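Q: I'm building a small set of examples for a reading group on sequence design. Run inverse folding on the following structure and report the sequence directly after it, with nothing in between.
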């Protein structure tokens, strides 16, 4: 009992162990991989990153003309780095030692809508491609 009272009094006057978040940012854990950074100007749109992404945090949408658009959900990403390793173009996908911004209503993308659009646009693109192949 005496040890508990002594420890309680020590704790009253000692500095807290916790971080005062959001005033002080939490330090990243050791071996933190960081967020994925995408550079569109370097992308060759091979879609390898989409194929190897375990949680499906990367999706491509297709246009009728065959162009593709990259979509990335940092809140779904597990930061495994598979997309960075699979990318054949050096520097297109990289991991930086920054933390993802806090999720808010305005920053969270409608990922169900993006996935639906990706599937539908790919089907439409493949159908248009097959139609062009039959004409030739």
């Amino acid at each position: 009992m005496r040890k508990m009272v002594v420890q309680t009094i020590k704790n009253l006057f000692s500095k807290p162990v916790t971080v005062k978040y959001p005033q002080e940012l939490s330090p990243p854990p050791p071996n933190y991989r960081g967020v994925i950074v995408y550079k569109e100007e370097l992308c060759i749109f091979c879609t390898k990153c989409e194929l190897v992404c375990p949680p499906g945090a990367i999706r491509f949408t297709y246009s009728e003309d065959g162009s593709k658009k990259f979509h990335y959900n940092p809140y779904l990403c597990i930061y495994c780095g598979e997309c960075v390793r699979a990318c054949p173009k050096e520097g297109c996908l990289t991991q930086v030692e920054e933390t993802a911004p806090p999720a808010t209503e305005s920053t969270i993308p409608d990922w169900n809508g993006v996935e639906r659009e990706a599937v539908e646009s790919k089907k439409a693109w493949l159908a248009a491609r097959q139609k062009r192949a039959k004409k030739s």
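The chain has one domain: 33-114+121-135.
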